[in-house]
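Trying the structure run again after the queue cleared.
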Amino acid sequence: YSAIRIGPVVKRDVMKASTMLEHEPQFATILAFDVKVEKEAQEMADSLGVKIFQADIIYHLFDKFMAYREELKQKKREEFKSIAVFPCKLKYSAIRIGPVVKRDVMKASTMLEHEPQFATILAFDVKVEKEAQEMADSLGVKIFQADIIYHLFDKFMAYREELKQKKREEFKSIAVFPCKLKILPQFIFNSRDPIVMGVMVENGIVKVGTPICVPSKEVSFRNITL
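Done. Tokens:
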């Protein structure tokens, strides 16, 4: 507990309890033992999401609070259960409950030098603190948010595909596409430099500029001429 006070529950008590909503919602609660709850305090609690438990017997008050905690735990189990059965083989370094904070961004940023596609944070049904978003933007860490797990997965996979496409474009000019060619003897038009002949592509893809070789004791390489 963070505080004990004698007297009816007032708005000030609710405001103090609400500070726990972003960190530990289960503790954004007020246990009112044998005291009244002012109407304005109850209305504020309902609007903010603060739970107020009342009882004239201390054991009953404790039971109500423990039942509430168990209810929250069950909800979390259901959330993680839906994630666990999702057919996905994504690599991850950590799982945490609560809003995304600067510490999470710092941890994710360590992947920027190794695997930028994994310098990401998947925020499922949680908030992202302003300072954390600003740090992520400055460092180049991607934060994806969604209230539905499938939407979150789709966003991340689209981002990975975007990175792959950029890599393809970057290395397109130097990429070598493997192929296997069969010389057609009836279509040999010139057997010396430049060699001009017909071939059949048995495997792979052949493009202008692809280096080729003819298996022999002295293997020679040539640039293909179309």
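The helical segments are 11-18, 39-48, 58-84, 102-109, 130-139, 149-171. Worth checking whether this holds up in the mutant runs.
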